[in-house]
Amino acid sequence: MKSLCVYCGSSIGRSSAYAHAAQRLAKVLVQGHIRLVYGGGNIGLMGIIADEVMRLGGEVTGVIPKALMEKEVGHHGLTRLLVVKDMHERKATMANLSDGFITMPGGIGTLEELFEIFTWSQLGFHDKPIGLLNVDGFYSGLINFIEHVVREGFLKPMQASLLMHDSDPETLVQKLKLAKPDSHEKLLDSSTAAKII
């Protein structure tokens, strides 16, 4: 695993635990020689994890739409900053540059990124591991909801298992490293999926 995409908030949140978790995850990435790929911002948890990876001597690739760059939230102190035309290109670029995905606490945009990459896995667009960093129980309700979706027959247990979770950054990264491409039946074969995205 050479690179991980981290989805996280453009705010820092109320609890200092979120920033602390971002710094801990940054340390795990640098120690594992894993490049950070993220949304390219210099604010919120996005800025914290990018700053910490850079401070520790790691590599960071940011991907940001031109409109956000023009509003001066782009991070100019990264290893590499890619400015793209829109949010769709941003997410596709981040996915293509990454060997796996971790979602930290964040808002609606963070959840949208998580569920898109989760859906892409279910459909067969990729077989990269996906993790949820459940800092101080932030995602416990979501984890319970996904279990509810399984119980109600809208998601198969094997599909739900595509989303790994842990409260500890090091443990979660290790789970992603050890994950094997899932073998459950995809809704689309790889050639059809490639044509869609």
UniProtKB/TrEMBL annotation:
Keywords: Cytokinin biosynthesis, DNA-binding, Hydrolase. Its EC number is 3.2.2.n1. Pfam families: Lysine_decarbox. Signal peptide: none annotated. One of its GO terms (biological process) is cytokinin biosynthetic process. One of its GO terms (molecular function) is AMP nucleosidase activity. GO terms for cellular component: cytosol. Gene3D superfamilies: 3.40.50.450. Coiled coil: none annotated. NCBIfam families: Rossman fold protein, TIGR00730 family. This is Cytokinin riboside 5'-monophosphate phosphoribohydrolase. It comes from Noviherbaspirillum autotrophicum.
